[in-house]
Specification:
- With 309 residues, this protein is mainly alpha-helical.
- It contains 14 helices and four strands.
């Protein structure tokens, strides 16, 4: 947009009393279709602390701008009263806050704003990864150089993979645009590549089973619970959690205690867990070893009594 070029950040913002109004048609007041760079621009504006979520005052600012942007100009705070804003926020979050964490993440914002269909496909909302075991298989497939990171060229191949079944042709220029946008959106530490935790936000799993209350000390862990966990990670049913299965299990554990982690952290964690739980030193975790680990984990996480039949 020519009117956005040049000037300081403060001057750019000052041009638009309501930041979102520039993305509406001046005559119909309907949203224009957002391109990937425009989406990134909106995200960066409202995620002012750069923590990967629009929350708190950021969320209030976004909602007020979102609702008031249909007006041609702002006439003051009375455009939307605080009482009306509170009610609208409840309705809005009920519709778009899919994981009920009272904040908006990148994928949720992509559902709120009208996006190019191909760009929406990158968020896989209709087909999330079934488990962290599948996630780790995808990670290994695209981390071609085994560096422990998804670099820009590898991310481009991943974006191409996500768009392989699209009905519309994706040009090379558009592929580069999407790749640059995803890297800008998810590369929180700005090192030009995606580490494990950053890729996990781009490619979320359907559910981290270990987040369930039964593993956080609120209840006694039963053998049925342990059977379900073991079955979830022992995908090839060979009686042991190993290789990508083990890495998927460890990734889910890491995600419970750290928001920011990389492959080095995973390797360090793997060494510590196997040293503690791998009783026969075969580099795998069988059901008996998993039972002992989950007993310790449940007790350490709260006031759980251990494992019951």
């Amino acid at each position: 947009m020519a009117e956005r070029q040049g000037g300081t950040k403060d001057q750019k913002v000052a041009k638009f009393d309501n930041f979102l109004r520039q993305f509406r048609d001046k005559h119909t007041k309907q949203w224009k279709m957002f391109t990937a760079p425009q989406f990134m621009e909106v995200w960066k504006h409202y995620d002012s602390d750069g923590n990967g979520y629009i929350e708190g005052h950021e969320l209030d600012s976004f909602l007020r701008s979102f609702i008031a942007s249909i007006n041609s100009t702002d006439t003051g705070p009375e455009v939307i009263s605080d009482a009306a804003m509170k009610d609208l926020k409840v309705v809005f979050m009920d519709a778009f806050d899919e994981n009920d964490d009272n904040r908006i993440d990148i994928a949720e914002l992509a559902q709120i704003l009208p996006m190019e269909e191909n760009f929406l496909l990158l968020f896989r909302r209709d087909s999330p990864v079934a488990s962290s075991v599948e996630f780790m298989k995808i990670w290994r497939e695209f981390d071609k150089d085994c560096s422990g990171y998804i670099e820009a060229d590898e991310l481009k191949n991943f974006v191409r993979y996500l768009l392989k079944d699209t009905q519309q042709m994706v040009t090379e220029d558009k592929l580069v645009e999407y790749t640059d946008t995803m890297l800008n959106l998810f590369d929180n530490n700005k090192d030009g590549k995606l580490q494990l935790s950053e890729m996990a936000k781009l490619l979320p799993v359907k559910e981290n089973f270990l987040c369930r209350p039964i593993f956080k000390g609120s209840n006694t862990v039963t053998m049925r619970d342990i059977d379900r966990v073991f079955k979830l990670y022992d995908r090839d049913e060979n009686g042991a959690i190993e290789n990508e299965e083990l890495h998927g299990f460890l990734k889910d554990l890491l995600a419970l205690v750290h928001e920011d982690y990389d492959s080095g952290d995973l390797d360090t964690f793997k060494e510590a867990i196997l040293k503690c739980c791998d009783l026969n030193c075969d580099g795998r975790i069988d059901k008996e070893e998993l039972t002992l680990f989950l007993m310790k984990y449940a007790v350490l996480s709260g006031d759980a009594e251990g494992v019951s039949a």
